[in-house]
Each structure stands twice: as structure tokens, then as C-alpha cells.
Amino acid sequence: MKAKKRLLLLLSVMLTMSLLLAACAGGNSGNGGNASNAPASTDGNKEATDPPAEPAEKIELDFWTFWGSETRRPIIEKMIADFNNSQDRIVVKHTFLPWGDVWTKNLAAIAAGNPPDVIINDINTVAQRASSKQVVNLAEFLAKDSIQSRFFPELWNTVEFEGEAYALPFNTDTRFLYYNKDAFAEVGLNPESPPKTWEELEAYAVKLDKKNGSRYERVGFYPNNWGNWGWDSWMYNADNGTGFVDKEGNVTINTPNKVEALNWINKWTARLGESTVNAFKAEFGSQQADPFISGKVAMINQTATFYTQLRDYGQDVNFGIAPIPEFKEGSGHYSSGGGFVIEIPYGAKNPEASWEFMKFMTDVQAQEYWAIKNFDNVANIEASEKAATNAELDEKGKMVYSEAVKNLKDTKIFPIPEFAPDFRSLLNPQADAALLGQKTPSEALEQAQKEVEALVKANKK
Predict the structure, then answer these.
(1) What is the pLDDT of residues 412-425, one digit of tens each?
(2) Would you call 68 exposed, middle or buried from its count of C-beta atoms within 10 A (0-12, 13-18, 19+)?
(3) Residue 291: what are its φ and ψ, rounded to 5°?
């Protein structure tokens, strides 16, 4: 009887275990695994664990310039580094190409369909590149980022073709009269009263000339291609800041004031003598050999950046600066300028990213940095004004830079029209003939006027 009870108890335990195992097996069958792998909670509130997002691939831009000197290359590369560090989407690298190669290689790269992303280019030839589809139209970018007002108006005019912009102005230059105050005092001229007109300039120059017998030891002034100024700039100055060919195709070469400008230069050559002019020009050099720094010339037309040579090599030169003397009293102290733009070559792969870089390079911070480190006139108005008072400049530097900023209002830039890209090849030989005495200025400019008018008529649509 006892044995029978033990057997029944054992069968009962075995049956219970079988039911439990069956229940466990049934519970696991829907989960595809055993109970130990089941989730701790099945209420639907458990957060999913997403895989880490892949970092966005950075856009790389190739930026071409001709700034490879020991002075300028570190400056432009610091500006590029500042842009790269200002955001995490775009990386710009700098490619330096020599002055004679950068633009021809750019054209070849455009033709091959593999241009740089951004390039520094000549300010006077934007229209030619725009008309030839070598540069990207910026209209769609400017519609979103209206930044035209940051630039000097004269500079903005140079980047437009048929009413739309194809580049952003980057830097420019201007010229004024440097004069030696000690030389002025030596001959009884007021060192604080520089010449204001062509007539005064001539009178001052005669007083400042210094001769030893028939040999000139010092020339007061000579107008043509001494310093950074030539016959063409005098023609602009005389003719109310008017160039030779405008955007509409008007040719203004043979005008009475431009003829008088060439006659005026010839009078200077006749007074000094060609031998003196050529001898002094042959001795011109840079640094201490510059004729103004060495004291061989008492007045000279030069760019604002000429101050850096005076600062570094002419510390003893007591100089002053003044606007370019005007043709007649009240006619205007017109100066001439040039410069460079930053643009996107046609066919660039990432124009939107290129635009972001261009905006940065022409904004206040970058432009002020370029201005101070290079002592260079920049296109951004606010940056120019800030640079004029920057603590990094000495007092003379501040004086020159602030005068340069003021001088930009009278500085004219003359872009070359797309329909007359080589008009200077017709004008220059005629002007040279007039200055060499082979033709009268009137004859020479009349011939140049006819030839350039014919060129415009043949090419202008």
C-alpha cells in the first residue's frame, strides 16, 4: 500500500513537471528563442537604439591666386584658414600659380571642364570673361545675399556685365602725389602747401630742380612713367575722369583736353631734355635706389602702397602726400586705379560653396586683415574705414591710409569693353608716336580715334 502511494506521488510530480515544461516551450515558440533572451519589458515603450549617423562629406574647393611671395602668401593662407575654421562643411585649399600662368591655365582648365572653384582675376576684364562664358553669373546668389552695398560703387561697376554681376571686388589701388617736405623748405616753398593744379605743379618743379652746371642732380618732377603714373592717366585727369572707350561703345580718345595732356608732357621733356629724362629713368630702382627715396626726384606720383617702401627704406625722408594736381582749378583731382576680383570660373563643381567662400573673403574681417597686413586698398567700405584707424599702423601709416580711402572717391577705373578687348594695341603706338615727336598729339589721337571707332563698329552687337 505504501509502495502504491509512493508511485502515485511520483507520477503526480512527473505530470506537473511535464505541464510546466510544455508551458515554457509554448511561451518561447513565439519569440524564436528561450526565456532567458526575452525582453524585460513588453509594454512597447522601449526606445530603439539608432546607429550613429555618418558624418557629412566635406566639400573641397581649390582656390587659385598668384600671391606666392614671402609677404602675401602667408596672409592669404591665414585668411583661408580662418574660413576653414569658421564652419565645418567646406575646406578650401590654396593653389599658387605665377602671374604669367594663372589666368592662361584657368582658361585652359575651363575649356577642359575642370576649372578651379574660385580664382583671383583682373578687375578690368570681367566683361570679357562674362561675354565668353568663362565665369559664373552671380545673380541667383545676390538675390539671396544682397551684399552690393559693402563695396565702393566705382568697384562694383567693374564687375557688372549687361546689368548683372559676375565677380566680387576684392582689392584696388589709388595714386596721389608724394612730395619731399625738406626739399620744399630748401627752395622756399611751403611744405604744407603742395601744388593743386598742373600749372602749380610745373612752377614748383622748376624751383625744385637742382643742377650742377648742365647736369641735373635733382629733378623736381617729370610726368610720364616716373613712379606709378603715365600719359594715359594724365589724359584721364585732364578730361574730367573720362576714359577711352565706355560700356556703350563711345570712343573718347581725340578730345581737346586729351590732346593738351600729350602736348603738356612733351613740354616737360623739351625743358629737361631727353638725355636727362632717360638717364634718370635708367637709374631708377627699388628700395633705397628709388629716385624719391634717394632724393633725386622731389615729387612723384605713386600708389598708397608705396608708403611701405618709405617705411622700410626711407625712414629719413620727410614726405607729404596730396591728391593728384587737377588740370584746371575746379576740374577735379582725378586719379586712376586698378585691382582684382574674386570669381567662380564657369563649370566649377560647387558654385554654392564657392559663393560662401567669396562672401567671407570680401566681408569686413577678412578685408581689414588683408588691408593691414599688405597696406593695400580693399573693396569693402567698412573694412577700409576700420583699417585707417587700426592700431597696428603707425601714425604716418594711418595718415597715408586714411588719405588713400578719401582718394578713392576721385579714383576712376576703366574696364575694357568686351567688344574692344585689344583697343590699346591701336591707341598705344599712336600715343608713343606723339611722345617721340613722330606725330603731333592731335594727328596721333585723331588716327587712334578712327581706328578704335572702326574696331568697336566691327565687334559691337
Answers:
(1) 999 999 999 999 99
(2) middle
(3) -60, -30
Give dist(CA 152, CA 169) in Å, integer.
9
Unique residue bearing C-alpha cell 618709405? 310
Where helices occur in 148-230 by DSSP H, the ranges are 153-158, 181-186, 198-208
Global confidence as pTM? 0.85
Residues facing 90 on adjacent strands: 59
Residue type, 262: L
Domains and CATH numbers, the chain: 59-173+337-412 (3.40.190.10), 176-336+419-459 (3.40.190.10)
Nearest to 331 by CA among 263, 283, 380, 261: 261
Cα(370)–Cα(320) distance, rounded to whole angstroms? 25
Q: Give the confidence band of 8 by pLDDT, cuts at 50, 70, 90.
A: very low
* 166, 294 Cβ separation under 8 angstroms: no
40 torsion bin: left (phi>0), alpha (psi -120 to 50), beta (else)? alpha
Distance between CA atoms of 324 and 229, rounded to whole angstroms?
Answer: 10
Q: What is the pLDDT of residue 54?
A: 56
- Tell me if 317 sits within 8 A of 396, measured CB to CB: no
- Three-state secondary structure readout of 68-99: CCCCHHHHHHHHHHHHHHHCCCEEEEEEECCC
Quote the cell numbers at residue 274.
631727353
Q: Which residues contact 194 (CB under 8 A, 6 or more apart)?
A: 177, 179, 204, 299, 320, 322
Residue among 209, 218, 194 nearest 301 (CA): 194
